[in-house]
Design brief:
By secondary structure, this protein is an alpha/beta fold. The chain is about 25% helix and about 25% strand. It folds into 3 domains: about 250 residues, HUPs (Rossmann fold), CATH 3.40.50.620; about 160 residues, Ribosomal Protein L25, Chain P, CATH 2.40.240; about 120 residues, Ribosomal Protein L25, Chain P (Beta Barrel). The protein binds adenosine-5'-triphosphate (ATP) and magnesium ion (MG). The site of adenosine-5'-triphosphate (ATP) has 15 residues, from α2 and β8.
Length: about 550
């Protein structure tokens, strides 16, 4: 995979914006990010956020955060708060422009009456089944509802009574009067309002009718003076309706809709409904489970805002649907953490090594750089003592040809400390290796030999008596196949090994007291982030991502 460094983004939407500004069609660009507060934001939303807020920032415009709360839901407050947090965490600001489609309910209703008065909308009393039967198919035109020819007076009366709460849910709808024979099904007299006797988080019980997305969205754009309304490709077929409403309603501005390809990522699902299912059915531990493709999950996993923004820039904005390799987002976070994460040593699966010629009870403290390439990250002190712990898989009693790590009689370097040579292997009755014995060469203090000896491997380690215990959570992909939806039920594709918990990992003492969200590279193991489940007595780490060339790099 060759990956180019992100530059100043260039894409067809920015070209349109620039042309509109240059031609004076747009004075100041105003975009919006319009989430429906019915779930947490996912990485797909991040693409839309980066695009909408990015364009506003680049062209000195404005991006509104507008909650598309036309559909009352119970959890709205939790979702609204999470969305605000996630957008801000990604590094974007809506300034004064925190808006709600529900603030426009009165105006939207007035425009409903306006359409009725112009003979462009009618109340249909058909049942949902009858309406479905009259809608036609992709190949056959629809048929006119018997209520299509109602008089303006009758329509006004019925719409007002809908609004007054006189009818039960589903008894009536307001429809646009466009064309039941249109080849575009969205233009076959789409529903504009439906009756729903349900409390709304912001408007309470004031409204027994709620506008449809296709009606509320373009008109909300117009109310806010949105210049470029950017949405995903599946709305391309809705654009004629968008334009029809902007044309036929006395709106204060004329926004235009542009469509771009949504982000799809391999080995995951992205629809909010499916993510909600994972949460409510307990397949993950909440919306912010580090295996989730949500912003909250990525944050908890240890992703940085800039890694997500860089990822979105690399993905780019285009007109054609595709699936992005999950490796690309891992590349983006690795690149960021490689620069900023201090290095520490930790052992996930400890094997004791007793250094026979090292004085018992002694401790040496080695000043160790936190980042070899960046002295500004400073140094820390790492203790060394007679008994150390190494990674169990770094020792083989009977090593194959290409195994360069520790083996009987072999010398390796302990990072920043000494060269040691394995002298003896201690086993229990069952034949399991329980301990190694070794000797160290005092002349190699700090990890270099005056005679130029270069062991083939450098191992990470911790001093047994100084190490702190912690829990480490290792994550694998949540789904087994690239496209979990392919096989039918995506739940059948869940990876049963997506979470592996290491209860007794050992870490060098410098990490003691690290706060949640602190990020480290555990040398040779990957990048890790302190989880919010940590307590003052016990740190919990999430592995954000592995090191790609873990062994190759340290084998030199
Ligand atoms: P979902 O299909 O997950 O329920 P949605 O489109 O219904 O998503 P909204 O809250 O309505 O979710 O989305 C807010 C904005 O984010 C919309 O403008 C939508 O087009 C955009 N968006 C949603 N998913 C993606 C995606 N995968 N890639 C890019 N933009 C997206
Ligand atoms: Mg939507």
């Amino acid at each position: 995979m060759t990956i180019e460094a992100p530059e100043k983004p260039r894409d067809f939407i920015r070209e349109i914006v620039e042309e509109d500004l240059a031609a004076g069609r747009t004075q100041r660009v105003i975009t919006r990010f319009p989430p429906e507060p019915n779930g947490y934001l996912h990485i797909g939303h991040a693409k839309s956020i980066c695009l909408n807020f990015g364009i506003a920032n680049e062209y000195n415009g404005q991006c509104n955060l507008r909650f598309d709360d036309t559909n009352p839901t119970k959890e709205e407050v939790e979702f609204t708060e999470s969305i605000k947090r996630d957008v801000a965490w990604l590094g974007f600001s809506w300034g004064e422009n925190l808006l709600h489609a529900s603030d426009y309910f009165a105006q939207l209703y007035t425009w409903g009456e306006e359409l009725i008065n112009a003979g462009k909308a009618y109340v249909d009393s058909s049942s949902a089944d009858e309406m479905r039967a009259m809608r036609g198919t992709l190949t056959e035109p629809g048929t006119d509802s018997p209520h299509r020819s109602r008089s303006i007076e009758e329509n006004l009366d019925l719409f007002r009574r809908m609004r007054a709460g006189e009818f039960p849910d589903g008894a009536q709808v307001l429809r646009a009067k466009i064309d039941m024979a249109s080849p575009n099904i969205n233009m076959r007299d789409p529903v504009l309002y439906r009756i729903r006797h349900k409390s709304h988080d912001r408007t309470g019980d004031a409204w027994p009718i709620y506008p449809m997305y296709d009606y509320a969205h373009p008109l909300s754009d117009a109310i806010e003076g949105i210049t470029h309304s950017l949405c995903t490709l599946e709305y391309e077929d809705h654009r004629p309706l968008y334009d029809w409403l902007i044309e036929d309603v006395s709106v204060p501005s004329r926004p235009r809709q542009y469509e771009f390809a949504r982000l799809n990522l391999s080995y995951t699902v992205m629809s909010k409904r499916k993510l909600l299912g994972l949460v409510t059915e307990g397949h993950v531990h909440g919306w912010d489970d580090p295996r989730m493709p949500t912003i909250a999950g990525l944050r908890r996993r240890g992703y940085t805002p800039s890694s997500i923004r860089n990822f979105c820039e690399r993905v780019g904005v285009a007109k054609r649907e595709n699936v992005i390799d999950a490796g690309l987002i891992e590349f983006s976070i690795r690149e960021d953490l490689n620069r900023i994460a201090p290095r520490v040593m930790g052992v996930l699966d400890p094997l004791r090594v007793v250094i026979d010629n090292y004085p018992a009870g002694d401790t040496e403290w080695f000043d160790t750089p936190n980042h070899v390439d960046d002295p500004s990250l400073g140094t820390r002190r790492v203790p060394f003592a007679k008994t150390i712990l190494i990674e169990r898989e770094d020792f083989l009693e009977d090593p194959p040809k290409k195994f360069f790590r520790l083996a009987p009689g072999r010398e390796v370097r302990l990072r920043s400390a000494y060269f040691i040579t394995c002298t003896n292997v201690v086993k229990d009755d069952a034949g399991n290796i329980v301990e190694l014995h070794a000797t160290y060469d005092p002349a190699t203090r700090g990890g270099d030999s005056p005679d130029g000896r270069k062991p083939k491997a450098t191992l990470h380690w911790v001093a047994a008596d100084h190490a702190i215990d912690c829990e480490v959570r290792l994550y694998d992909r949540l789904f087994k196949s690239e496209n979990p939806e392919e096989s039918g039920n995506f739940l059948d594709d869940l990876n049963p090994q997506s979470l592996q918990v290491v209860q007794a990992a050992k870490l060098e003492p410098s990490v003691r007291g690290a706060q949640p969200q602190s990020r480290f590279q555990f040398e040779r193991l990957g990048y890790f982030c302190v989880d919010s489940d940590s307590t003052p007595d016990r740190l919990v780490f999430n592995r954000t991502v592995t090191l790609k060339d873990a062994w190759a790099k340290t084998a030199k």
